Amino acid sequence: MRERPHRQAVRTGTGFADLTEAELGGRDFAYADLTGARLALARLIGADLTGARLTHAHLSGAHLSGARLIGAHLDGVNLTGADLTGTLATGADLSRARVRYTRLTGTDLVGADLNGATLADSDLTRADLSRARLVDTDLTRANLSGADLTGAVGLSFPLLTGVRWDLGTVWPGDVREQIEEHSEEIAAGLFQVRGGRGHDRSPSPAPDPVR
Q: Cα dist. 45→36, 69, 79, 108, 193 in Å?
């Protein structure tokens, strides 16, 4: 299927308009070019960003719950501390993205490209990561309780140190046994992958909570 051309985003004479903390809930940004846009703490709840180009955009602390990011280009984006609860990001490109301390509860990441991304300390409870690409993806201390990783490829055991999971977590067959062998039960039905800090690439402290 031919990809639709990207609509040019709003710019000023010196570059993108500063949309920090902007109220953009429910807006239509489908296929817009928002490369490098400054959207920190912006409210994009329910916004349509289908196929949008957000390469290297700044979305730290942004509110994206219920937004549509299907097929969006989010490579190199900064989503630290953002809220993507229930977001549809099927087939999105999140390669090399910074997604630390981020809420991804129930997020649809089916077939997403997360190669080289940092998701350390993020909440992926009940997230759908089936068929996702996870080569060199840092999941250190992430919560994967109830997450579905059926068919996900590229998981690296050292980058799973401290991951929490439960009996509802579905691991790819090629790592399931290794995960079980290297985990300990920390509460009834809740497990954690043993190890130290592993290869965590993001030593910065946790940001302020999403407002």
A: 20, 12, 14, 15, 33
